[in-house]
Amino acid sequence: MKPFLELRNVHVWRGDEAEVHALRGVSVTLHEGESVAILGPNGSGKSTLLKLITGEVRAAYEADSACELFGEELWNLEELRHRIGVVMPEEVQRFDAHQEAFETVLSALRGAYGLVRGMRFRAVEREAAWAAVRRMGIEPLAGREYGALSSGEKRRFLIARALVHQPGVLVLDEASTALDFAAAAILMRALRDLHKSGTTLVLVTHHPAEIPPEVERVILMRGGEIVADGPKRRVLDSRSMSRVFGVPLKVSWHRGWCQVQG
Ligand code: ADP
Ligand code: MG
């Protein structure tokens, strides 16, 4: 099977004057069927890596570099949405607070952030949106106003949006940041169920405790570089974590979950 993402020696510059070297010679290959976590401190380049997938940032040209999705350099974003669902944290604020929560999911079928006049949906499309809502267990909330939902509920609606086209790969940037214990636990359950039903997860986080036991591969980033990539118990040890986060950390494991103490 072709990898869904293949980066070779990728450099990305960000900022108004392209003054920030956000990715520095990154090479990585991700395959469908293998869920991964991308872990690193704030500013290490994790979101920039995901924005290469959404097309929000572009790699700088280097003679020996490559940035391919499903084996091709250029992608039509509309087509890509059917294969990779991406949820970025800044999307939470894009919706009108007064719209019905279900409409946030339905509008994803048109690549929009809410319904506009004249948008029509066929019965099969509405059913696809409901199916995504059911997968996230948010049916009882679908008739509420979006603005009245809690942060955890909003995150689950965003994930349902990303699922409307039934993509094989779901990419989540900092999915459980700023959620309370209950909301984070409900979200984690939903992600584990998606994994179980065959969706490949790419989870970006700065917190190892947010990596579910099913995710075996961890990519560790620091300063725009990948500093380790492999089986999580090898990548996430006390030495590498202390080095990457810059403070002494002690890593232990409990039933497949990583625990970190300062
Ligand atoms: P992470 O997601 O790991 O926290 P990012 O990919 O967001 O890291 O950021 C990587 C680097 O790029 C950081 O130094 C960050 O400050 C910089 N950066 C990110 N977005 C922008 C932007 N819009 N303008 C300028 N610099 C940016
Ligand atoms: Mg980020």
Which secondary structure elements does this structure contain, and how are they paired or packed?
Layout: E1 5-14, E2 20-30, E3 36-39, H1 46-54, E4 66-69, H2 77-81, E5 84-87, H3 101-106, H4 123-135, H5 151-163, E6 169-173, H6 181-196, E7 200-205, E8 217-222, E9 225-231, H7 232-235, H8 238-245, E10 250-254, E11 257-261
Parallel strand pairs: 3-7, 3-8, 5-6, 6-7
Antiparallel strand pairs: 1-2, 1-4, 8-9, 10-11
Helix pairs in contact: 4-5, 5-6
The appropriate CATH architecture is 3-Layer(aba) Sandwich
Oligomer: single chain
Number of strands: 11
Overall structural class, as computed from helix and strand content, comes to: alpha/beta
Radius of gyration: 19 Å
**CATH topology (level 3) name:** Rossmann fold
Largest sheet: 6 strands, mixed
CATH superfamily grouping: P-loop containing nucleotide triphosphate hydrolases
Order of helices and strands: EEEHEHEHHHEHEEEHHEE
Mean pLDDT: 94
The CATH C-level class name: Alpha Beta
Number of helices: 8
Basic shape:
globular
Bound ligands, named by name, code or SMILES: adenosine-5'-diphosphate, magnesium ion
- Count structural domains: 1
First-last Cα distance: 41 Å
Strand order of the biggest β-sheet: 5-6-7-3-8-9
